[in-house]
Task: inverse folding
C-alpha cells in the first residue's frame, strides 16, 4: 500500500501533466523506431536520462552510428540537460527536508514537468509531506513517460513526421501555459519577459549555442532584477 503522502502527487501527475508527458514521449518512441533502434533502447534512454533534449541527442548520435564517439554524445546530452541544475537548486528549499539525504530519491525526477508542478503545488502542502508528494508525482510521470515511449515505438507507422513534431511540443506548451497562469506574480513575470527579450540573442548566434546563450542572458537579467528590487 502506498504511503498516503504519495497519493496527492500521484493523482496530480495523472491529470494534465500526464497527458502532456504521454504525448511528448509518444513522439520520442516514434523517433527511436525511425532511427532503427530497439524498443528496449527507447525505454532505457527515457528512464535513464528523463530529459527530452538529452534523449534526442542520443537518438541522433546512435542513428548516425556514433560517428563522433559515445563520449561526445554523452557530453552533448549532459550539456543540454544542464538546465536541471538550477531547477534542483531552486526546489531544494521548497522541499523543506530537514535531512538532505532524504532528498536523494527525488534527484532522478527533477525535470521540467515535475519541477513546474511542484513549485506551484508544494507551498500548499504540509512541509513534512513535500518530499513524498514530489516522489509520488515524479515516479508517476516517469512511469507514464516510459510506457508512452514504448507505445510511440510500436505505433510509429501511424504517425507522420508532422504529427511527431507536433507531439514533441505538447510538453513545452503545457509548461508555457503553467507560466502564463503565474503572470500575476513578480518572479514568473520577470522570467517570462526577460526570456522573450533575450530570445533575440538566438537570432544572431550559431545554432549550437544560441538557445543556451539566450537562456543564460534572460535568466541572469531576471535574477539580477529580482535581487535589485528585493523580490522573490
Result:
Amino acid at each position: 500500500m502506498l504511503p498516503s503522502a504519495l497519493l496527492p502527487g500521484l493523482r496530480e501527475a495523472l491529470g494534465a501533466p500526464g497527458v502532456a508527458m504521454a504525448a511528448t514521449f509518444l513522439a520520442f518512441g516514434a523517433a527511436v523506431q525511425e532511427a532503427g533502434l530497439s524498443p528496449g533502447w527507447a525505454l532505457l534512454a527515457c528512464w535513464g536520462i528523463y530529459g527530452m533534449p538529452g534523449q534526442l541527442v542520443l537518438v541522433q548520435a546512435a542513428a548516425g552510428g556514433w560517428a563522433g564517439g559515445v563520449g561526445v554524445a554523452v557530453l552533448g546530452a549532459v550539456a543540454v540537460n544542464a538546465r536541471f541544475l538550477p531547477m534542483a537548486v531552486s526546489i531544494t528549499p521548497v522541499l523543506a527536508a530537514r535531512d538532505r539525504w532524504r532528498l536523494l530519491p527525488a534527484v532522478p525526477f527533477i525535470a521540467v514537468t515535475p519541477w513546474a508542478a511542484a513549485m506551484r503545488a508544494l507551498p500548499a502542502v504540509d512541509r513534512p509531506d513535500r518530499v513524498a508528494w514530489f516522489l509520488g508525482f515524479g515516479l508517476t510521470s516517469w512511469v507514464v513517460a516510459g510506457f508512452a515511449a514504448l507505445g510511440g515505438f510500436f505505433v510509429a507507422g501511424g504517425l507522420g513526421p508532422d504529427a511527431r513534431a507536433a507531439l514533441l511540443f505538447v510538453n513545452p506548451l503545457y509548461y508555457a501555459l503553467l507560466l502564463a497562469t503565474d503572470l500575476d506574480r513578480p518572479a514568473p513575470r520577470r522570467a517570462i519577459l526577460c526570456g522573450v527579450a533575450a530570445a533575440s540573442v538566438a537570432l544572431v548566434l550559431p545554432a549550437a549555442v544560441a538557445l543556451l546563450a539566450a537562456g543564460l542572458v534572460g535568466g541572469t537579467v531576471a535574477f539580477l532584477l529580482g535581487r535589485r528590487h528585493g523580490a522573490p
In short: The chain has a mean pLDDT of 81. Residues 130-154 form the longest helix (25 residues).
